[in-house]
């Protein structure tokens, strides 16, 4: 018990203690359960009048159930978190929390946990109700499990989103209004989509192929695209509002943006790309009752990745007033923690990031490392899927196989990493002079450089070799390693393979790319290193002088 | 223990705290005095790591509030001027929450909470809901939570505001107890006299600037070297009061002479042993003086004199 006691977040505990005692919670809880049960009973009543087959009744009840869940998530769950932080500020308890040495991360995480616990109670309480549908057949335990996985992930996202809104807005009313507007907009996009996914899966109807656009055939693929992707996307998107909330709670402005930048660069961009591509394709199909053809997907993917690239770029750029944290300082802190046996603190984001993060320069290195890790994970996963589970219908891998260039995945991973390395080093190079240059001008410069020189240059090579517009669009993929994920969801049957020949034949060009990007990146890295040392030495000297003058006094 | 050097805070174009420098020795009770809007709360918030200083340094127990806020929070207990509490939580749970936040290990947590409740006389109330407490009890509760992690330094922002006279006296004895526990207490107020019998030193600020700082004796000596006494001279005959005023006004070192009812009030910028000079003038002119009262400056006067009374 004592062991666990150390890991209890005090805010979480307090939230549970105070909120579970209110009548409000009891009422909303009971009313929502009542609503859900009555909706399902009503549905059952009408369906039994129509003498539907039982399996059909089961499926329909399950759908009613999921609609109700999305309604409850959209209406009730924001209430748990959309006032969480602003009410502390308005209630004048926030300063007490901060001076009690609760970090901004502790506060956000504790608030999230308590709001999420309440949400989870709602979700779990619906489990007996869904069993009603289960009795009629037509749905499988696996489906129920996966639906709950989506619901839990989606609820977490909504709760965290509202929490971040509550940390940004200055009054309770505004936070509530903003939360509900945002949630209603998001919910009106996402819940129909999730609903149609379910509908598709349950009914082999005209709509059957709507949302399995890139899913293709094979049960694993269907599961991947239809279910795993939303869960994956929701869970990874949670970090963005988390970091927004955390950042806005910091007392001091320095290094405020580092973790957010890292997120945008590494995760946000990739997730955004996948999600937009996936979703835009679904909409298109819904309107056109026909799948997007491959070129369209590429266009959309390229567009999304360009957006992702911009995010990444802004991410790697430092902001004025950002201090580089010296490694020595971080190492000192780390060893202090290690000696005192505070292992958890070692992995606390601040130190973890501190080693690689704060200060745009280290941030840039960190970005590179993340990309490398990301790509490595992807390659490993693909390899496992093919070698161990016998799934070999994803584009990314099959093309390599067909091409005979088995080293291609490794090479393309290196292209990605080297490009990111170069680009983030360039951004951090600029960030050291950000005061002189100005943030907006720096972004503009990078964008221009990227759009007018680097990308066309690279594409030119590709076009030279393979010709055509597609080649250049394809090269957008080098902006983001997460494009690799995107490929893995495209079954090989959806295109002839011919348009991908550029990928297959393009090995030599990539060697050049790797060489150029890495050497340029390394050069910038050296310059950045010198600069950051100089800056730190100055800072240290300044601090020393102040201390000395105080001692004299 | 607490050290401020050129601490500055600017809100927009308004200079709220202007290059404030002073030092608080360890183990002292230190009064931080100033009129409304002097920048006391702003300074305290910077010390409590809640507000980013625009320039200057502040250190508590050697840790810089800006670069080492975690360490500062570990050695400092802060009680804000206004604070809220949570609904549906009992006193014990409230303190338990902060004890957990300070990462007091489970083994010692209960005894720590008990100790703090005893010190602040909350033990009997521990199952009461926090939201049902009166202002004075809340103040005590906040003090109890401030003491949980056994801080070396206590920073209290107008802790006596809103307390009834009895509670004030109790609060004062609590402060003395804290002094016995060798804690450094930094306490802000806009009434100097309220603190005069317990503080060791004070800093007086106005409009964000330091007016004077040091221990109480030094400050009162400082102001008595200005040779300042207030005189009130009662005169029996109302007819002669005008002529008496004329005589007084002519006397050296008398300023601000004025008539109030049957008396003449004045400030006399000399030592008390020179007071007879004023009287001599009056007696020589046959003015029937019935009563003379003099008052040397007390803390209130020091405060009134050093501050301009302008509320920014
Ligand atoms: N967040 C803020 N934005 C702008 N001005 C502020 C802010 N906080 C304080 N001020 C201004 O700074 C000045 C000092 O305020 P502060 O609260 O520190 O005074 P104080 O000495 O604590 O006064 P009191 O005795 O009334 O508590 C005031 O004029 C106030 O208007
Ligand atoms: Mg104040």
From TrEMBL, chain A:
Superkingdom in the source lineage: Bacteria
Sequence intervals crossing the membrane: 25-49, 61-86, 115-136, 148-169, 175-199, 220-242, 262-287, 299-321, 366-386, 406-430, 442-461, 509-527
Keyword Transmembrane: yes
Alphabetically ordered keywords of this record: Membrane, Transmembrane, Transmembrane helix
Name of protein: ABC transporter permease
Automatic annotation (TrEMBL), chain B:
Keyword entries, A-Z: ATP-binding, Nucleotide-binding, Transport
Domain ABC transporter as annotated: residue spans: 2-232
Residue ranges the record marks as coiled coil: none
The keyword Nucleotide-binding is annotated on this UniProt entry: yes
Alphabetized GO MF terms: ATP binding; ATP hydrolysis activity
Pfam families for this protein: ABC_tran
Record bears the keyword Nucleotide-binding: yes
UniProt family annotation: Belongs to the ABC transporter superfamily.
The protein's name: ABC transporter ATP-binding protein
């Amino acid at each position: 018990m004592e062991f666990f006691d150390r890991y209890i977040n005090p805010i979480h505990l307090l939230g549970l203690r105070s909120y579970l005692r209110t009548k409000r919670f009891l009422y909303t809880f009971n009313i929502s359960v009542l609503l859900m049960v009555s909706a399902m009973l009503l549905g059952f009543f009408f369906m039994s009048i129509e003498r539907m087959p039982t399996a059909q009744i089961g499926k329909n009840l399950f759908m009613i159930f999921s609609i109700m869940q999305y309604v409850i998530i959209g209406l009730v769950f924001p209430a748990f978190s959309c006032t969480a932080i602003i009410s502390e500020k308005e209630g004048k308890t926030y300063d007490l929390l901060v001076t009690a040495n609760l970090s901004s991360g502790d506060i956000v995480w504790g608030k999230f946990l308590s709001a999420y616990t309440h949400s989870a109670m709602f979700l779990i309480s619906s489990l007996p109700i869904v069993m009603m549908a289960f009795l009629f057949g037509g749905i499988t335990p696996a489906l129920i499990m996966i639906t709950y996985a989506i619901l839990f992930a989606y609820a977490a996202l909504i709760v965290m989103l509202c929490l971040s809104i509550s940390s940004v807005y200055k009054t309770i009313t505004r936070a509530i209004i903003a939360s509900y507007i945002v949630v209603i907009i998001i919910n009106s996009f996402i819940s129909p989509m999730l609903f149609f996914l379910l509908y598709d899966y349950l009914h082999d109807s005209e709509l059957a192929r709507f949302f399995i656009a890139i899913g293709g055939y094979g049960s694993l693929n269907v599961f991947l695209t239809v279910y795993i992707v939303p869960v994956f996307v929701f869970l990874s998107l949670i970090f963005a509002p988390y970091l927004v909330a955390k950042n806005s709670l910091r007392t001091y402005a320095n290094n405020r943006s580092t973790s957010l930048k890292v997120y945008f660069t590494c995760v946000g961009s990739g997730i955004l790309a996948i999600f937009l591509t996936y979703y835009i394709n679904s909409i298109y199909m819904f309107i056109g009752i026909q799948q997007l053809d491959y070129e369209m997907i590429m266009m959309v993917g390229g567009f999304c990745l360009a957006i992702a690239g911009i995010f990444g770029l802004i991410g790697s750029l430092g902001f004025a007033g950002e201090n580089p944290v010296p490694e020595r300082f971080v190492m000192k802190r780390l060893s202090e923690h290690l000696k005192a046996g505070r292992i958890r603190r070692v992995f606390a984001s601040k130190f973890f990031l501190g080693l690689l993060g704060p200060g745009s320069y280290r941030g840039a290195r960190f970005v590179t490392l993340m990309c490398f890790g990301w790509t490595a994970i992807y390659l490993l996963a693909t390899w496992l899927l093919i070698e161990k589970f016998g799934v070999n219908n994803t584009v990314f891998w099959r093309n390599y196989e067909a091409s005979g260039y088995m080293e291609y995945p490794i090479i393309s991973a290196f292209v990605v990493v080297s490009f990111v390395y170069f680009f983030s080093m360039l951004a951090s190079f600029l960030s050291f002079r950000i005061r002189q240059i100005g943030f907006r001008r720096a972004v503009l410069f990078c964008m221009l450089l990227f759009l007018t020189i680097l990308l066309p240059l690279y594409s030119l090579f590709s076009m030279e070799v393979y010709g055509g517009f597609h080649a250049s669009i394809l090269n957008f993929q080098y902006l983001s390693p997460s494009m690799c994920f995107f490929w893995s969801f495209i079954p090989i049957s959806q295109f002839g393979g011919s348009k991908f020949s550029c990928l297959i034949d393009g090995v030599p060009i990539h060697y050049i790319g790797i060489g150029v990007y890495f050497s340029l990146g390394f050069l910038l890295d050296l310059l950045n290193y010198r600069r950051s040392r100089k800056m730190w030495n100055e800072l240290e000297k300044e601090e020393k002088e102040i201390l000395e003058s105080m001692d004299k006094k | 223990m607490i050290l401020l050097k050129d601490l500055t805070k600017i809100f927009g174009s308004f200079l709220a705290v202007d290059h404030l420098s002073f030092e608080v020795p360890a183990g002292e009770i230190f009064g931080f005095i100033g009129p409304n809007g002097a920048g006391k709360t702003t300074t305290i918030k910077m010390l409590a790591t809640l507000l980013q200083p625009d320039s200057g340094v502040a250190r508590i127990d050697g840790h810089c509030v800006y670069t080492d806020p975690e360490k500062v929070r570990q050695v400092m207990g802060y009680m804000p001027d206004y604070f809220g509490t949570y609904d549906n939580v009992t006193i014990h749970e409230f303190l338990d929450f902060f004890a957990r936040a300070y990462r007091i290990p489970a083994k010692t947590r209960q005894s720590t909470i008990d100790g703090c409740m005893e010190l602040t006389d909350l033990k009997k109330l521990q199952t009461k809901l926090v939201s049902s407490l009166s202002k004075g009890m809340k103040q005590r509760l906040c003090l109890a939570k401030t003491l949980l992690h056994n801080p070396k330094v206590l920073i209290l922002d107008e802790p006596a505001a809103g307390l009834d006279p009895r509670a004030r006296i109790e609060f004062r004895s609590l402060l003395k107890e804290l002094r016995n526990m060798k804690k450094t207490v930094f306490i802000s107020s806009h009434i100097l006299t309220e603190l005069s019998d317990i503080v060791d030193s004070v800093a007086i600020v106005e409009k964000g600037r330091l007016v004077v700082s040091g221990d109480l004796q030094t400050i009162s000596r400082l102001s008595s070297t200005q040779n300042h006494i207030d005189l009130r001279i009662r005169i029996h005959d109302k007819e002669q009061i005008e002529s008496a005023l004329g005589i007084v006004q002519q006397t050296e070192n008398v300023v601000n002479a004025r008539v109030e009812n049957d008396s003449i009030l004045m400030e006399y910028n000399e030592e008390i042993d020179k007071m007879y000079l004023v009287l001599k003038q009056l007696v020589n002119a046959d003015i029937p003086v019935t009563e003379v009262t003099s008052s040397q400056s007390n803390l209130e006067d020091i405060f009134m004199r050093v501050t301009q009374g302008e509320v920014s």
